[in-house]
Amino acid sequence: MSTSIGNNLLHKNFLSPTVLDHQSRINTSTCIGGNSFFQPQVNSLIRRSPLLTEFHGTRLTMLKKKLQMGKQQSVSRSPQAVLAADPSPELAEKFTLDGNVELQVDVRPSTSSSVSVVEILVTSSSDSLLLHWGAIKNRKEKWILPNSHPVGTMVYKKRALRTPFVKTGSNASLRIEIDDPSIEALEFLILDEAQNKWFKNDGGNFHVKIPVRETKILNVSVPEDLVQIQAYLRWERKGKQIYTPEQEKASNYCYIISDYAKTRILVAVEVSQTTYQTIARSSLDIAVADTLEWKLESKIGYRTSRKLSFHMDDKSLEGGKCISFRMEKIDLSETTIISNKRHKKKARGSMSTLLREFEEARKDLQVEVEKGTSVDEIRKKIAKGEIQTKVAKQLEKKRPFSVERIQRKKRDIMQLLNKFASRPIEESISTESRELSTTERFAKAKEDQIDGPILNKKKYKLADKELLVLVAKSSNKTKVYLATDLPEPVILHWALSKKPGEWAAPPSSALPLGSVSLDKAAETNFSTSPSDNPTDKVQSLEIVVEEDNFVGMTFVLLSGGNWVKDRGSDFYVEFGCQSKLVQKVAEDGKGTAKALLDKIAEKESEAQKSFMHRFNIAADLMEEATKSGELGLSGILVWMRFMATRQLIWNKNYNVKPREISKAQDRLTDLLQNVYRSHPQCREILRMIMSTVGRGGEGDVGQRIRDEILVIQRNNNCKGGMMEEWHQKLHNNTSPDDVVICQALIDYIKSDFDIGVYWKTLKDNGITKERLLSYDRGIHSEPNFRRDQKDGLLRDLGNYMRTLKAVHSGADLESAIANCMGYKAEGQGFMVGVQINPVSGLPSGFPELLQFVSEHVEDKNVEALLEGLLEARQELRPLLPQPNNRLKDLLFLDIALDSTVRTAVERGYEELNNASPEKIMYFISLVLENLVLSMDNNEDLIYCLKGWNLALTMSRNKDNDWALFAKSVLDRTRLALASKAESYHQLMQPSAEYLGSRLGVDEWAVNIFTEEIIRAGSAASLSSLLNRLDPVLRQTAHLGSWQVISPVEAIGYVVVVDELLSVQNKSYSKPTILVAKSVKGEEEIPDGVVAVLTPDMPDVLSHVSVRARNSKVCFATCFDPNILAGIQANDGKLLQLKPTPADVVFSEVKEDELTSSTNLSEVASFPSVTLIRKQFAGRYAISSEEFTRELVGAKSRNIAYLKGKVPSWVKIPTSIALPFGVFEKVLSDNVNQGVATKLQVLKKKLHEGNFSTLGEIRKTVIELSAPPKLVKELKEKMQNSGMPWPGDEGPQRWEQAWTAIKKVWASKWNERAYFSTRKVKLNHDFLCMAVLIQEIINADYAFVIHTTNPSSGDDSEIYAEVVKGLGETLVGAYPGRALSFISKKNNLDSPQVLGYPSKPIGLFIRRSIIFRSDSNGEDLEGYAGAGLYDSVPIDEEEKVVLDYSSDPLIVDSNFRQKILSNIARAGNAIEQLYGSAQDIEGVVRDGQIYVVQTRPQM
Question: Which residues partner with 1415 through β-bridges?
Fold first, then answer.
């Protein structure tokens, strides 16, 4: 309020300006800024005295009285370069620059004011010297740029000023006046621009101190009008204390206090119902003569009211309103405020309070004068509310939130949960086929004839026609086929390229018959294929390139006398091989709403006419897109995104009015808001579409774009050149480019007309000179404004930007707030007559919250802004699902708030440079909250947010484990972001590839489509913050940069791969160090690999980790991306790895060291392992008492051995088994004769090397039928052991159990197991599979114990990992880490946590039966066969997203100590029982320990 009133008092046009005596030099004018009715004369400014008005009896008398004023500083000055002439410097320094070139610097105080003058003289100088300079304040090294500087000075990259010297004879000089008393020194360099030569001071800057000067203030007084304005502002900041609360609420008027003689008068002016202005400025200085006519309408005595009216002329903002007031003459002892006729209550206050405000205001301003602040600067500070007082600080305490910070409400985070049932993407795939186009039929026919690989295939849209280019390899030659359906004859103007895009003359061997050779090119005519059907006619051409040194072909077409190009550029097609996967997706449209995308592609030529056409077509397709679910809406998003990123033509030979564009936008966004309301599961993607489309608007919202550019031209007399070209472009077809052009003009003007700034803004936002020229009404000229146009253009372009953003920008905060809060504008030519009512039902205090955001949106320190933005989003959120005819305005506001969070975070990175971990964690929590508010299926993100809040609490409470826990939350947050990115890729990328191929979109734009979607949101900002915090947490928690899972020294050649899974079946001929970006936990390590390094986080006790240790392969996780990048940079080189328990040291070695490495000799040799074929022993099922080496594997025997031998508090589940040979017996049964025959054929193919049959074999095994005898024996054994028989619940339940048994048998042929046995030359046919059957314990937690620490080999400590739910998430391919701990065997009551869990998913199941694999190929000496085969429960496990912030294992230290100690005790007891190190699996249920299996630790 204070700032706005200050601006009103200083700038509204009914104020008379205070004009100072002319004190500046020639060509310098001085005046107060603002829209005054009084225009000062250019060269002769006469000081006007203020008006004093008094009431004497019944007359209103106007008295003119000269105000007593001392000397005033110039209001504004524009120093220019002049020859220094004063011979008496206070400071003087001389420097030798080069030979006889000398530099002399003099510093002296001005004779006419308190400014300092710096005079610089360079002798024997050139004609092209520039002073590259800046000032130093507050002893800081960073330069600041003074506001006052010589004429001709340019701002250089916002970091320095550059001023040309004035040449006089052989010398060059300039003069700089410093009027800022806080400037302590100038620093500069001298640049000889012609020679590009810098003159420095011993390699550094020249440094000139500015002498401290005494400010003479004895003869300077503060103008009375400023005192009274400041007094009012103080009074207002105190809450207008003369009001009672009731009247404050009832009559929100502005008051000015006027002081004279024996009375005081308060004038209240109500301008409109919602806007209030003040008309009195000084001691009743009401500027009667020129702007206001006062009439005394009644003659009323003392202490009775006088009725007074005034008229504003038509130049004022409110235009000719007549308002009546009452005024009352009162005593000095009290003040009476008289409101207008509607409110006649009186409020009384102490006159001494008002008088004190005047004195305090005078002191405030005198302090500014004593600082050396000019009157003009004081006036500006008052206008901006920058003169601070104690009053302002007191007021902050009374507000619901201070100017620095808002008070956030406490909320239940779980109220933000958006959870929808996930569906396989393929469910919505359209199977509708489309008819191939003429060129596509041509390509298909050619592809059928080609005997080699297709290297490239591209289709280009030529308006409503097509050009297809097919590149193939055939007989060691590159063949290029071109086909088009253009009706006119076509000539190919072409060249071959050794570098992409290069024009090089084709060799004669590549020229088709009839070609013409040109300089660096050739021309060849297309030929027309014969066809009876006119629609099948196609012009085609074949080029054969025999040489291999060309990488592509560059070309353009000539048809009908016109050059045909690729959106203004040359066509270029690569000869390289495209990704087969991309080609396949692009061809078949799998994973897309294909029928919808085909319609979009068919309508693209129509959509290219204008935005109106495109938005109307999109609106027409919305019903079909909505019916196709997420895939359909994804197709619309991809199309709109290609448009927004300028991959599609915006306007082509069609003129359309802006209001028609905005109306089409409005239609589309109305449909989008309706779908948002009716399809909550699609809201995230709908928000993306809306932010891409922009808001639009009915009626004159778009028309204002045409009208207001004329206002800018008229107001600022800039009707020609670039502005006229832009005007024509706007009238023809406005687009989002106009927002960028407007911003570029504003930046150009603000930079003191630096044309480089104009082009930089355009370039940074994707607009090139070529694009400006490509518009139907091209922009050919650069802006060229006069300096006297600067203020008016900045004002008007700023207003115009609001109009442009209202139509084109879906994420502009200012326009979004205005549309929701409502506004009304009249006059000045901008937003004329526009009135938008506020959205109804907004929360209490919401307008103030948005005002806070608006006021702080440019703050450098962004923490308070982020809090305000998120509080606004939280307040807005409950309104978004509710019925509201203004829903899209609320959505665009939420989108804008979301976008502002991202930009604020990016701006705030500097704030975090030296920040504490706690502050970075708080920033992370804010950005994560923003993501939660924006995303569907956000449960995982919510639990991450709860985790960060817990980490912050632990940090503030000085918990010793805070950093360790925070690291686990960080890891989980990264996994959540990766999962979200993957879901985006799965949903959007197929549509981008298919539609991109059909529309001829640049391949690079298609390839990075999903990546750019992610970068556009705050997920990218969150990832950057996590990267910043990660090394801090690792250092604090003493984690180091590595986790060594298998500490084996290794030497090998570095090979970088994306996934270990993709190469697990490969065999490397040389010792290989694999650097794999992804390791899930269930993969097999390929032959020839001596080390696996990864940034991924498999558990230390996962299957792949165990197999690495057993195979003596180095295996480690690297947490530092810089270290990992250093290893990846050695791709192909020979490295040596030397791991320790916490680090991996690597170094490059020479080839000749290979022979001396014992590690390498071990690589080629595999352990000698043999299997003995097991026979069917005549029984289909046996109890645990019958387990023997001949009947079951080690898994079953070990669990039976534990029964009755472990302590009573360790429980062992009941077990039975299907022994060895049962599978073979079932297969040989007559009922399965067909299955046996089929398996025999498939196994023969497998032996011949056809590994694709593995999957078919597994499917065939599932076809087995159960012999009745098997069912009978199994039922008896289960019932006798006290286990529930599945058949008791019905036939379907038994079929579930039988299928689970068959899946265990079929896992003998899973890929990782099959290739693992081949690796060690095991006879796969001799592998037999028993099935261990146990009742599942519905676990709270599952654990795996190694009774010797596997990372260090220390047998004095136990290492264990614990997960929530079933243990499959620990040993299987589930992302994230388990809780890990060690426990010394001599102190089992003190477990030490090494890492907290980051696994997002837990598996839970009802009381059920599990069938575990138990082969004769597990736990063999020298072979890690454990974990290769499957264990299958009857029932499917339920996946639950885990909340660790409420898990007692995390938050209750006593509970954690008890559970972990009991796990360690159980492991120690079993190790003592066997007398050797053990690998143990178990679960915890209600605090009870269950062990489900044990084996020797390998």
Answer: 1329
How do residues 316-337 score in pLDDT, each as one tens digit?
A: 333 333 333 333 333 323 332 2
Task: Please name the residue that has the structure tokens 């809306």.
Answer: 690
Q: Which pLDDT belongs to residue 396? A: 39
Closest CA to 15 of 312, 231, 272: 312
* CA 45 remoteness from chain centre: 55
Cα gap 670→834, rounded to integer Å: 20
CA separation for the pair 951, 967 (Å, rounded) = 9
Residue 804 neighbours by CB under 8 Å, 6+ apart: 705, 734, 738, 739, 742
Nearest Cα neighbor of 90 from 209, 215, 217 is 209
Structure tokens at 885: 């005819």
Decide if 1103 is catalytic. Answer: yes
Surface-to-core class of residue 1317, CB atoms within 10 Å of its CB (0-12 exposed, 13-18 middle, 19+ buried)? buried
Give the CA dihedral 424, 428, 433, 439, nearest 10 degrees.
Answer: -70
Contact present, 490 and 497 (Cβ < 8 Å): no
- Residue written as token pair 């006398």: 561
Q: CA separation (Å) from 460 to 468, 472, 564, 972, 1226?
A: 6, 18, 11, 44, 60
Give 16's pLDDT tier (boundaries 50, 70, 90).
very low
Which residues lie closer than 8 Å to 376 by C-beta, 6 or more apart?
32, 73, 74, 75, 76
943 and 1443 in contact (C-beta within 8 Å)?
yes
Distance (Å, rounded) from C-alpha 240 to C-alpha 357?
11
The pTM of this model reads 0.66
Q: For residue 630, which of 591, 665, 668, 603 has the smallest C-alpha distance? A: 591
Q: Model confidence over 1123-1142: pLDDT tens digits?
A: 999 999 999 999 999 988 77
In single-letter form, the type of residue at position 1157 comes to: S
- Give the phi and the psi of residue 92 in degrees, each rounded to 5: -145, 135
Sequence-distant (≥ 6) Cβ neighbours of residue 1247 within 8 angstroms? none
Q: Which residues contact 1268 (CB under 8 A, 6 or more apart)?
A: none
Strand 197-199 with 348-350, pairing? unpaired
Strand, coil or helix: what is 388?
A: coil
Decide if 1082 contacts 1064 (C-beta within 8 A): no
pLDDT band at 663 (very low <50, low <70, confident <90, very high): confident
Q: Tell me the C-alpha distance between 320 and 311, whole Å.
A: 6
- CA 600 to CA 618: how far, in whole Å? 8
- The HSE-up count of residue 852 (CA atoms within 13 Å, CB side) is 27
For the residues 827-832, what does the mean pLDDT come to? 53
Catalytic annotation, pick one of 132, 856, 1103, 1346:
1103
Looking at 589-628, list the stretches that DSSP marks H as alpha helix, in order from N- to C-terminal side. Answer: 594-607, 611-627
Give per-residue pLDDT as tens, 1076-1135: 998 888 788 888 999 999 998 888 878 788 778 878 899 999 988 889 999 999 999 999
Which residue bears the tokens 């009731």?
246
Query: Please, which residues bridge with residue 173 across strands?
Result: 121, 166
Assign 390 a pLDDT band (cuts: 50, 70, 90).
very low
Residue type, 1322: L
Whether pLDDT at 809 is above 50: yes
pLDDT tens digits, residue range 1172-1201? 888 999 999 999 999 999 999 989 999 999
CA distance 592 to 586: 10
Look at phi and psi of residue 946 and say left if phi exceeds 0, alpha if psi is from -120 to 50, else beta. Answer: alpha
Identify whether the C-beta of residue 1473 lies closer than 8 Å to the C-beta of residue 1457: no
Per the document, the length of the chain is 1498
Pick from 1159, 1199, 977: nearest CA to 1073: 1159
Q: How far is CA 1019 from CA 419, 874, 1015, in A?
A: 19, 19, 7
State the burial class of residue 431 (Cβ atoms within 10 Å of its Cβ: 0-12, 13-18, 19+): exposed
Count each helix (H run) and each strand (E run) in the chain, helices first. Answer: 43, 54
